[in-house]
C-alpha cells in the first residue's frame, strides 16, 4: 500500500470521530502555539493559554461577522518583545478561529471558492490590533 | 483534521527536520528540478501523527493484561 493510500485511509477513519469542545480547544492551542512559536521563540504555552482564554471570551464568528467587527486600520507598533509575543499569541489563536469559522460557514453554505478575500482577511486578523 | 499535537506544533518541536526538507526543495530548484518530496514525506508523517492520536489505543497483548 502506498503512503498516500495509507494517509487517505487514516483520514477516512478520523472523519468518523466527533470532536468535543475540549478536544477542539486542545487543538486550537496546539496550532496557535506551533504557528506562533515558529516565528518567535518568546512564545510560551502559558501565553497561548492566556490568549486563548481572552480570545474565546469574545462571542463572535470572525468570518461570518467580519463586516460588523471593528479593527484598527493598521496594527499598532509595539516595542516591548514580551508585548509583541503576547500579541502574536492572541493573533495566532484568532487565526485558528478564523480558519475554523471559514470552514464551518462554507460547509453550511456550500460552493466555497478560495478567493483573494480569504487571504486578505487572514492577513488582517494576523496583523490586527485588539 | 482532529488530533494533537497539530502539524504546526510538531514543526515547532522539530524545526531542523522542517528546515532540512525546505533546503532539499531549494537545492533541487537550484539544480533546475522541482522536487518537494522530502517536504511531502515530512508533512505526511506529521499529519498521520496528529490523526493517530485520536484513535483508541490498541491493547498490548504482550503485557498479559488484556481479555483475549
Pair with the biggest interface: A-B, 20 and 22 residues
The arrangement of helices and strands of chain A along the chain is HHHHH
Count of distinct strands of chain A: 0
Number of strands of chain B: 0
The global form of chain B is: elongated
The pLDDT mean of chain B sits at 87
Describe this structure in words.
The complex is a heterodimer of chains A (130) and B (68). Chain A is mainly α. Chain A has one domain (21-126). Chain A has helices at residues 3-14, 21-37, 45-56, 81-109, 116-126. The longest helix of chain A is centred in the last third of the chain and has 29 residues, at 81-109. The model of chain A has no long low-confidence stretch (mean pLDDT 84). With 68 residues, chain B is an all-alpha fold. Chain B has one domain. The radius of gyration of chain B is 17 Å and the shape is elongated. The mean pLDDT of chain B is 87.
Give me some keywords for this one.
heterodimer, A: 130 residues, mainly alpha, 5 helices, 62% helix, 0% strand, globular, B: 68 residues, elongated
Annotate the secondary structure layout.
The complex is a heterodimer of chains A (130) and B (68).
Chain A: H1 3-14, H2 21-37, H3 45-56, H4 81-109, H5 116-126
Helix pairs in contact in A: 2-3, 2-4, 3-4, 4-5
Chain B: H1 7-13, H2 15-30, H3 37-52
Short structural summary:
The complex is a heterodimer of chains A (130) and B (68). Chain A is an all-alpha fold and 130 residues long.
